[in-house]
């Protein structure tokens, strides 16, 4: 463990109290306290593998985790530090619960600004009841809300993030996916641009999984990953389609009551299309906890953050012949741009017809430019 970094916890709490109002003091207190509890529970994986506390299966799983962690730095060029070299069992299914919010007739995500990471489009709580309480308050103010359990998060290298039972319980594929994704945040992170950060990490995750399954996975794991990837692509396309439909509806300028009726019809159609998609998957129910009767604008916002810019980052990776060091340098150059310029540069990597929301409010994009300015 990095003891110097862990000693920052009480300092951060004191700083939060000095800089924020009473409401934010409570938020920062639960955040610092929750993370401190997590770090106290962490034990070095090397020790647990040697002495798995009477649980041989845990020892075998953690040995796989250690191999995945080494692969991340050796083969993907991700940070080689103490993150994901320890393990903590939190005794619950999620580490935090994130609250997303959007207006009733808009996909403009609500933002919260926090210490160290800047402004993000969600607010995280270590207790589910706290997250649900905030969501209820926001609904009373007229917002659509979505509360999602989160298996992992990154402290961006400020602390030595541990592997958690919350994602290890889902198997080796999920461990690999999350470790690659969260380490990517340590490599490149831009304050105040959640969609950029999450889309970049998702593309690194996808490339890492492609390489890891080719080099390390069993045939059964490779088949499971291929099926999982197809389902995720289907689900992502479905939500992208409905995000665009919702944007068009809310931009149409119709009367609010008419838009409310049309919104109800839109989300009813989304649930029907999801049911048909699920049947095509043979009844796979992995997304059922997301697409419920109360799925709304905030849910569309939440999943858009992880996928909206993925095609542009994927195009950039392909343009660099899947050379990750070169890709990381290009992304670093993008990160140095102003937010609007970043978004337009990414849109410029795609044909105009495919640029979609990323190109909104950008200058005309001529074909497929080389983006050599960055």
What does this protein look like?
The chain is mainly alpha-helical and 374 residues long. It has 2 domains: 3-193, no CATH class; 194-374, no CATH class. 59% of the residues lie in helices and 9% in strands. It has helices spanning 3-6, 8-19, 22-41, 45-50, 56-76, 128-140, 165-168, 172-187, 194-215, 219-251, 256-280, 297-307, 310-319, 324-335, 339-347, 352-355, and strands at residues 43-44, 86-88, 96-103, 112-114, 118-120, 123-125, 143-150, 163-164. The strands form 3 sheets. It has a 3-stranded mixed β-sheet with strand order 1-2-8. A 3-stranded antiparallel β-sheet has the order 6-3-7, with helices on both faces. Strands 4-5 form a two-stranded antiparallel ribbon. The longest helix has 33 residues, at 219-251. Residues 1-22 and 365-373 have low confidence and may be disordered.
Search tags:
16 helices, three-stranded antiparallel beta sheet, globular, 8 strands, mainly alpha, 9% strand, three-stranded mixed beta sheet, 374 residues
